Amino acid sequence: MLVFLRRRILSSALPLLAVVLGVFFLARLTGDPANLYLPLSATPEMRAEFAARNGFDQPVAVQFLDYLSQIVRLDFGESLRTAQPAAQAVLQAFPATLQLAGATMAIAIAAAVVVGSLAAYRPNSVADRFASLLSSASASVPDFWFAIMGVLVFAVTLNWLPTSGTDGMGAWVLPIATLLIRPFGVLVQVVRGSMVSALSAPYAKVARSKGAGERRVIFVHALRNAAAPALTVAGDLTVGLVNGAVVVETIFGWPGIGKLMIDSILQRDFAVLQAAVLLTAVTIFALNILIDACYALLDARVRQGVTT
Amino acid sequence: MNALQESTRRARPADPAAMEVEGLSVDIRTPEGVAHAVRDVSFTVRSGRTLALLGESGCGKSMTALAIAGLLDPVADVVGGEIRLNGSNLLALGAPERRRLAGPELAIVFQDALTALNPVYTVGAQLGEPFRIHEGLSRRAARARAVELMERVGIPEARSRVDAYPHQFSGGMRQRLLIAMAVALRPSVLLADEPTTALDVTVQAQIMELLRDLRAERDMALVLITHDLAVAAEHADHVAVMYAGAIVETGPIGEVFAAPRHPYTRGLLASVPGGGKRGEPLRFIPGSPPDLRAVPTGCAFRTRCPLARERCATHRPELVENDQGRTAACHYWRESADA
Amino acid sequence: MSETGDHPAPADTAPAAAPRPRLFALLLKDRVACLAALVLLAMSTAAVVGPFLLGDLATRQNLHSVDLPPFTLDNGWAFVLGSDSLGRSVAARLVVAARTTFAVAVPAVLVSFVVGSAWGMWAGYHRGWRESVSMRIADVVLSFPSLLLAVVVLYVFSPSIATLVLVLAIARVPVYLRTARAESAELRSRLFVDAARTFGASSGSIIRRHVAPTVMPTLITVATLDFCFVMLTESSLSFLGIGIQPPDLSWGLMVAQGRQELQTAWWIAVFPGLAIVMTTISATTLASWARLATDPAQRWRLTVPRGRVRRTARKAEEVAE
């Protein structure tokens, strides 16, 4: 198990580095932040001082090496906007996104398992067709439009929910609902597919021949085998969740990392952007490794490195 | 006493019938039409005896077993017949009652042990499952019974291997595990669907011996589904030969193999290689089995039969009992026997 | 029934694509897929031809017709879907926006399709370091949220239709790369490729003649689904203000513009979203139909009959025997 984990962590390090590199250089290309933070009347000396203070006068490669050495010491620089340490700004915004994403993923997985299993249990039935419809619709609806429709119906017309902000339980409903449609849709299809295979697999037949009732066949025998592909896909979806979070946080004014990233791009706040991106990338990789660990827990063959 | 007399003596009709199948028919819905996979199949199997259900691939023998066990896929339907097990007709029972019988009365062993065992659970958990379902045993008690079972079927070091996973066993061991699972609750009838086909010859012999011992010990009725004439000859008491979804001949195996009455059985036995002189061409039955969506009218074998006549095309031959304990579905079996 | 010793003559075994007329007939049989295809056809036609027919209807401001409600012909055909805060016809704007949306999505998909597929087939065929490096690159690109990537890049190079197409194409190349590589690698291990090589065929020609036609159906299905994704991403970017910029129009942009007036003129934001939904659903439906229809092994799923065989039917057959 440990060998497995170590291997996975090492193989994730390279993409992580590439991401940091990419953002670092791209961000620098968005233009001279001096134009945003210094008044138009700033003299060349003031610009030079600004540049020196923030290290912009060095060649880009040197800047990158400096940055790397700083990261290792967990120093992420200062926000140009607020002069706070960038790490602080990021860590403040992070929990909000984490809560949103975590709740969404948990609900999406639970709901997909229920709906997918139901659909797989009776293929081509009303439940199955409904599930198919639901999941293909969810892949087709743009999340920002869905959010706006939600606001229109529930906040403006019916006045049941607030239009933005984070106060109260009600404020969670629309953001989570919006964020959940895509993962839910995809997971339903995956769960259905793998449950159908599991339910018609030989071991399911054997279980029935031992007198196991349908409930036992589904929940004890089939589900555990079907969980693996679903988990793998859930891992892929975490990336999409970050995409979705950006839109949702912007629309609902949710003070999370997505909003922070968009704002820092628009305001050329490099330090915050880099820190935010790094944290997001680390989280995505950590989440993937966590999911792989769950996968290994469920299936002994993965744990023992068997390649049947 | 020679083998013929021996087997005649063995097939005493006084033995209680553990299971009687009558007129069983199964249809499969395919995109190109309905396939009649099992057509009006009847046979009886007695306690403590082995019936071999013999036939080539695709003749419907596995389908028959699945229909009896109630494990058909949704595209297949049982469209007629009765299966009498200890008095009740299985096909007339509701699902819960049928489930109650699955394990304690009727069990099935499949061919491929690797896919038949759930890869994510230990063998102890799977072997203990019948006890948990039918006798309500706790996990620990079921595990203890699982160890007993493993020892009974000859798995070495059962106590330490009870928590191992299926992929950690060899093919032969896995088949033993499957058998153990099936006989856990001492069923009256055990269906073994090609239990040794996927194994090599030495392991085959061990598995068949295990089955024989278990059968004797528990007075079980064993239905051995196979295409292997040698295995059938060695281990079965009675045989029912299947062709194109129907039974064409039954009887004590020694008698049937010595003097087959149906042209198909004759052809089958004649095509076993060996015994001929070097340089002699191999004998075979010309043609191939019919498409089950378009079975020929009358006798299904008539297109390949050397004795076929007009009557064979218009009248489907019934399984007629023409001797004590022997039946054959052929209008001209006498000619076949004399030839 | 086959007779002794008869064998059908071996059919021509060129791995040709499925014959056109047959696919078309199959499409006509499936009503839902047919409907989806029609919708897409209508959308594309509107996108291509519409703007010419509409003239300046989409941009003509008319302060007398501000915020007209939809579903009524009182104000004439032009305003059947209402008008916005500057008196412009929503319907006309939808059509013009369609053109821009398609003008971004279609080229992006084409570019990523061609580049990704060619790259993937090459990498999968040659295996070794070429394959590993390509896969690593694909992993890196895919592990990054595409929206963020697009935002950053577009901010660097300032958004326009061309940069948008480029960014979306680059972000999606890995999808085709992965699929093409997997299929190509699998095919390479098959015997017919070895046979071709013994005849001295070069890798390029093998890829072209053997690998490509076999992999095409899967890739086309992937492309259709990807079209939806690209369209949705472009809409999101335009909505966030980093995609299509005014005075150009896009459905996503229209939703953003309609957002201000959600309370008073809901139709401005709703209809563009509906247009997106309709297009995506049609494309997805067509893609799943195509996946079944182009795979000979799965084609039967489109024709299997339903329902159970009744006992009476069986008995009738027996009597006839």
UniProtKB/TrEMBL annotation, chain B:
<protein>
    <submittedName>
        <fullName>ABC transporter ATP-binding protein</fullName>
    </submittedName>
</protein>
<comment type="similarity">
    <text>Belongs to the ABC transporter superfamily.</text>
</comment>
<dbReference type="Pfam" id="PF00005">
    <property type="entry name" value="ABC_tran"/>
</dbReference>
<dbReference type="InterPro" id="IPR027417">
    <property type="entry name" value="P-loop_NTPase"/>
</dbReference>
<keyword id="KW-0472">Membrane</keyword>
<dbReference type="InterPro" id="IPR017871">
    <property type="entry name" value="ABC_transporter-like_CS"/>
</dbReference>
<keyword id="KW-0813">Transport</keyword>
<keyword id="KW-0547">Nucleotide-binding</keyword>
<dbReference type="Pfam" id="PF08352">
    <property type="entry name" value="oligo_HPY"/>
</dbReference>
<keyword id="KW-1003">Cell membrane</keyword>
<dbReference type="InterPro" id="IPR013563">
    <property type="entry name" value="Oligopep_ABC_C"/>
</dbReference>
<keyword id="KW-0067">ATP-binding</keyword>
<dbReference type="InterPro" id="IPR003439">
    <property type="entry name" value="ABC_transporter-like_ATP-bd"/>
</dbReference>
<dbReference type="InterPro" id="IPR003593">
    <property type="entry name" value="AAA+_ATPase"/>
</dbReference>
<dbReference type="InterPro" id="IPR050388">
    <property type="entry name" value="ABC_Ni/Peptide_Import"/>
</dbReference>
<feature type="domain" description="ABC transporter">
    <location>
        <begin position="19"/>
        <end position="269"/>
    </location>
</feature>
<dbReference type="GO" id="GO:0005524">
    <property type="term" value="F:ATP binding"/>
</dbReference>
